[in-house]
Amino acid sequence: MEAWRCVRRGYSCCAVGRGRSVWLGGGGGGDGPRYPMLPYHLQSLGRDRITPWDFSQRFCWNRHISSCMRWPGNYSWAPYPYLSSQHCQLNWRPPCLFLPNRSQFQHWNWRPDNFAHTSLFHLSSYIMDSEGDKTSSKRQKTQGVIKRHWEYLCHHNKENMKILGDKHVDQKYKDEKEKFEFSVMSYNILSQDLLEDNSYLYRHCRKPVLIWGFRFPNILREIKHMDADILCLQEVQEDHYRKEIKPNLESLGYHCEYKMRTGRKPDGCAICFKCSKFTLLSANPVEFYRRDIPLLDRDNVGLVLLLQPKFHCTVSPICVANTHLLYNPRRGDIKLTQLAMLLAEISSVAHQKDGTVCPIIICGDFNSVPGSPLYSFIKEGKLNYEGLAIGKVSGQEQSPRGQRILSIPIWPPSLGISQNCVYEIPQVTRVEKAEEIDVTQEHLEKPEVLVAAKKLSSNLHHHFSLSSVYSHYLPNTGIPEVTTCHSKNAVTVDYIFYSTEKEAINTQQGKKGTEVALVGGLKLLGRLSLLTEEDLWTVNGLPNENNSSDHLPLLAKFRLEL
């Protein structure tokens, strides 16, 4: 097959047709072609694949064809090589005259008859070196793709396997029936309105890659390729959700639940699950804004679903939560209170009638870094915040400006949530019961003193045994992994937390109702690897040509066991 080569700008590409492919080298070293970071199916994660272009992107709408043309307004060079008419029929003339804000160039006409839907195309690295291509960042910018590998974390112990002819096969079949495997994806897809309102974070990006018409097909393709059973999405813009995201996901077999942020905020959180694998038992939105509590004046939200696995009647339901906590690094008091409200709702939903707690998965953008007090509280289940500076709660700033010390307690009693992050019984009910039994005033005062002492405690607790899917550092080098990367920062703020395998917390004598028994433990089978900041800047950070959010999607696979 005749190869395609772009003579200018140092482009290189891989042309594919009729079962043959040619790599033209350049830009990416001598290791051969790079491949897209996202695979087709879960079982293919970590393998080398080449991305097939969607119909809309194959025609490069809102883009031009020749690498020798420029966008109006000094846009960066487009990374598409010249396509010869010997490979696909193109009738077009150089768009010397065009008007601003036009979605297409004048006098060009695609003829896709010979450009089959199975055609494959790969863009290799290129370097922007002309004056018009330079961005505000001092880093050297390249454009390409990075592979992410699937990391298997659970291996069968062959030494413990007893092969006894047909009996082993029967036992294996019986064991498989008692196990339920599913995958979870958490993804902050970057609201278009927020992108435009915070454009200073994306000065390193070429303007065409920031257009929603370019971004959404990329995001949808990522979701299709990951093929997760449960999707937890943040920064889902309401109009895009209603017109594009929900219809497309429903066509893929997902049921979607959505909670929009309060106030006039344009985005929210969504949890989508495959109807073929789960049945919805309950959907519980959580609003962190409270009109009567000055501390809670922000419009962040959460969403908690209770899902029942299909065809596994004996398997426990699964509680799935999704949230996007406040960003402001100097308001750790608000972040901790929002987290406590979410945990209280999860506790209410996950507790079953028999007193047990079903498996729990918590996804989201927590706007807190690994090792921070907020992160440690989630994993360890306890936090003593006495003397803790308000700006150090999330660990987002090395030298936080907010040095005010957290008050004790952080939130007022009127919120109705205890320091154990569960809903409290209204105080009025307790007083009424006391009056019914006609106790003396002395007996009434004693509980009040105890309650006051409890309110002054600086210890927060929750009763879930939670682990993080990711370790947050590369095992060999200790280099931090990142989940978001833009012009100002590159850190980890996105997480998937899950309740570990079967565990019971013994009750203390004389204290009934404090037992937390987890049933049907979750085992982490594998995860899609994360990247380092250095990795992401080799492809010009985020968003870029292939990854259309400023966050990376997280993906994990679990096994639910009886």
TrEMBL record:
Q: SUPFAM superfamilies from the entry?
A: DNase I-like
Output the Gene Ontology terms for molecular function: 3'-5'-RNA exonuclease activity; mRNA 3'-UTR binding
Residues forming the Endonuclease/exonuclease/phosphatase domain are 185-508
Residue ranges constituting the Protein angel homolog 2 N-terminal domain according to the UniProt record: 37-144
Q: Which GO terms describe its biological process?
A: 3'-UTR-mediated mRNA stabilization
InterPro entries reported in the protein's UniProt record: ANGEL2_N (IPR045816), CCR4/nocturin_mRNA_transcr (IPR050410), Endo/exonu/phosph_ase_sf (IPR036691), Endo/exonuclease/phosphatase (IPR005135)
Q: Identify this protein by name.
A: Protein angel homolog 2 isoform X1
Query: What organism does this protein naturally occur in?
Result: Phascolarctos cinereus (Koala)
